[in-house]
Write a structure and sequence with these properties.
With 332 residues, the chain is an alpha/beta fold. The chain contains ten helices and ten strands. Helices cover 30% and strands 12% of the residues. The longest helix is centred in the middle third of the chain and has 16 residues.
């Protein structure tokens, strides 16, 4: 059973980018040896989803410069990261995306593309699926429901239809097929301020519904809690549900999930090259505790961040509530 932690103040300021860290009852954490480098190439995206914690969209112009991208493979080699997790925005829109993938794969590093699926249907991206397959990139794709109405409500009109078309492209290349070596994982986010349902049961539902109605196959489903920051926090604040959602996350805290939270094995890099303990801290402007606010990706060439303290705040309960939540889905 989940333990109920001591209550802490859940002020709106604690959920705003670059605000001072508020007192929190979240337990202290220390990093293990990082095995994943998660790199945000920028905030430009072809969608504007209501649950997006990055606040990405078509009008965003921030993107990583060429010098910083060139550092990524050097850091992968120096710190012996096993996985490069590429995110955005829609990371595929960055002109350096493909060369970064190629260089990482030449190092033998596993590459994950956090893909919104509809990018595969955008003009100029007609060969993207074939490129990903040719580089044996793991595709982790957003599909918050197997219902068209629910997906379009959260992500925009027509998104479900285009997502199905993209999944068929990937399946045709071998993604999601047993023995192909091409991994295709889907991501579920709740529609509103609630915890995700049990991952295994929902995965079975997804596999049945997508196979029966669309002939779609995939490997795994990741259930991920919506984090109360950025665009989703603003939606909750407008509807008067922010405080109740924060309380739900806190009373659902399961201390057994602390050993597996993603910040213990992942380092996050923003589009400017600054380092954070996780993607969520990055969006809030909370630098890693053991690092200065201007600590940069280049410093990892000579600095080992193993066993450093991790910056925590109230939003961290989103990762430990219930069955837990991470970029790789449920923790328990």
């Amino acid at each position: 059973m989940a333990a109920s932690p001591q209550r802490s103040s859940c002020s709106a300021a604690a959920l705003s980018p670059s605000s001072p860290v508020q007192p929190t009852a979240f337990p202290p954490l220390r990093r293990g040896t990082p095995s994943t480098l998660q790199v945000n190439l920028g905030y430009r995206c072809n969608q504007s989803c209501s649950h997006c914690h990055v606040n990405a969209g078509p009008s965003r112009t921030e993107q990583m410069d060429g010098a910083t991208i060139a550092l990524v493979p050097e850091v992968l080699r120096a710190r012996r990261f096993a996985t490069l997790d590429i995110t955005g925005g829609a990371p595929e829109l960055h002109p350096g995306f493909r060369e970064l993938v190629r260089r990482a794969r030449r190092l033998g590093v596993r590459v994950i593309d956090r893909c919104n699926l509809t990018i595969l249907c955008e003009p100029g991206q007609e060969d993207l699926a074939r490129f990903l397959a040719g580089q044996t990139v793991t595709v982790v794709a957003s599909l918050p429901c197997y219902s068209a109405a629910n997906v379009d409500r959260q992500r925009g009109d027509g998104v479900f239809e285009r997502s199905i078309a993209a999944l068929r492209q990937l399946n045709a290349l071998g993604y999601g097929q047993e023995g192909s070596g091409l991994e295709l994982d889907l991501v579920y986010n709740p529609q509103g301020p609630s915890l995700p349902p049990p991952q295994a049961a929902l995965e079975a539902d997804y596999k049945r519904e997508l196979a029966d109605h669309f002939g779609i196959r995939f490997n795994r489903l990741f259930t991920i809690a919506n984090m109360p920051i950025q665009r989703f926090a603003a939606v909750l604040r407008q509807s008067g549900q922010l405080e109740s959602y924060m309380e739900l996350l806190q009373v659902s805290h399961n201390p057994a999930n602390l050993e597996q939270v993603m910040c213990r094995s992942t380092l996050s890099v923003d589009w400017q090259g600054h380092l954070y303990d996780c993607d969520f801290n990055q969006m809030l402007g909370l630098p890693a505790t053991g690092l200065s606010p201007q600590h940069h990706l280049r410093d990892l060439l000579h600095h080992d961040p193993t066993d450093e303290a991790i910056a925590v705040a109230d939003h961290c309960f989103g990762c430990t509530a219930g069955a837990g939540s991470s970029c790789g889905g449920s923790l328990s």
